[in-house]
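idk why but the lab printer keeps eating my pages so im just putting this in chat instead. protein + pyridoxal-5'-phosphate:
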Amino acid sequence: MNPLLSHLQPYPFERLRKLTADVVPNPALKPISLGIGEPKHATPAFIQSALTNALDGLAAYPATAGEPALREACARWLHRRYDIAVDPATQILPVNGSREALFALAQTVIDPSQHRDAGGPTVVCPNPFYQIYEGAAILAGARVAFANSDPARNFAADWSSIPEATWATTQLLYVCSPGNPTGAVMPLSEWERLFALSDRHGFVIASDECYSEIYFREGPDAAPLGGLQAAVQLGRTDFRNLIALTSLSKRSNVPGLRSGFVAGDAAIMKAFLLYRTYHGSAMSPAVQRASVAAWNDEAHVVENRRLYREKFERVTPLLAEVMDVALPDASFYLWAKVPAHLGGGSDEWFARELLAQYNVAVLPGSYLAREAHGVNPGAGRIRMALVAGVDECVEAAQRIRQFIAERS
Ligand SMILES: Cc1ncc(COP(=O)(O)O)c(C=O)c1O
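predcted complex ->
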């Protein structure tokens, strides 16, 4: 067996299942889950029919690079969304969801033979973070360094906490903007700083942008800044050492389709294509055609955003009266602080008791983070995914208010 497998951490939902295994949720109330961040809005009918109308292509193996039509649709979307020019022939690859690509990218760019004296190469991650980053780093033979999120700076990752000696061994940096679970969007100034570090130390930046289309504000600067867009604004039109990962899962409510794309540095893309060819990561032709339809349409994304906006507008003020929580920059999560007088401010206590008494599932924040720099930056927080319908989300917020009010 690969000994590195034993270093993988249990997934947060596994930990939640264990935590609540002996809990009997209040049977008088209908269960509401704000736990798992899985989109629940309906998949648009035109995407479903594009998929079923494409079943004639199943008798041939698809190319790992994907059909030119798909890469061109992705390039056109990047142009419309970010006003940037990306070459569909050399700077874009389809992926079967961003999750597998986040993992596979680490296997492509990490060289475990380097920095042996320093304990091996490093992958830098935000903390809290999407758990795949850590597993990808471990299985690629790297160690992980964490930059904790700072609640005082809109949950920005504190990149300055990573010592220069660690940056010197860093081969890959994961950025998650908009962030899961904090929803924070990284501003241009932070990008400038990370690009400078990447230039100095030669590491690759993987920009995980799967929540880029779920935002709540309106106006010209409302849409989150993308990594490639930041690069162009800073004159880095070759996207050197930068790969952005974009997904249809949340944008188009198709987490089951498994479709996204990566775009950026052509040299990395070439190596990534080689890796993916051996790994067997080609996208089904039917999925490719459904994806073209999805990337070509924006109306369903506007409607999707409207549904999330309505939920956040109604739920956030209800919760903000009883706990420290605010509208995030983007994403579909609320990242709330457990009031100190409840279970000593413990996120695990809150998740267990809320489930037992009010049949609402939330995820303890400490499960999404690791202890680093002396703290677990997720401890004492809970993540609530507003993925259910509006009425259910409002009902959950009212139950949480009652749960907190009863103890105040
Ligand atoms: C931060 C983040 N990145 C990537 C993903 C993976 O999304 P997909 O593989 O569906 O594109 C998720 C899914 O929840 C996520 O939260």
